[in-house]
Amino acid sequence: MALNKLKIKKKSLIQISLLFFGLLIIFFTYFYDRNKEPLLDQTIKKEVPKDVVEKEGFNTFENITYEGKDSNNNDFILNAEYAEFATNEANIIYMKKIVCRFFFKDGTNLKILSDKGIYDNITNDMEFEENVEMYYLTNKLFSDKANFVNSENYFVVQGNVLGEGPLGNVAADKLNVDLIEKKMRISMYNNDKVNIKVNY
Fold it and tell me: What is the CATH number of the domain that holds 178?
């Protein structure tokens, strides 16, 4: 009788093994696709942020921030709602809806807003275009365009320049600010006089 029980157990073990291998063969034949990527890779691909979009030859980002120091060792933070760069020229960043802040060593700061702009992340040169607004202490400056040329240490504001402050107002076509000499040159394109109103 012990021999019969052993034969039955051995027979049952063989049947269970055959059934298991049969199920594996059915699974691999009908349900498993060798060309399909593993589930882990699919999950990782779904976790790629929506704010990074690739166009052919361009990388595009949303809500991006750059931080750095200018040539005078002042900190700046440059934010944009939208930015892109060509893959063959990755240092030139084209931006939209820009907010830039410079934090000067004397504790003051300059805030610049614009609709569009370009940032060179190697030289830290910045170009602001369309509806440019600048705020420094209680002074406001509005223009069509502004260029901060960090590599040469100067700042140019141009196109319908209007300034307002407690000491007066200014209307001009162009302001050149030499950051080394700390001098400003105000000019008009057509040799008209610069309009400055001083408050006493």
Answer: 2.60.450.10
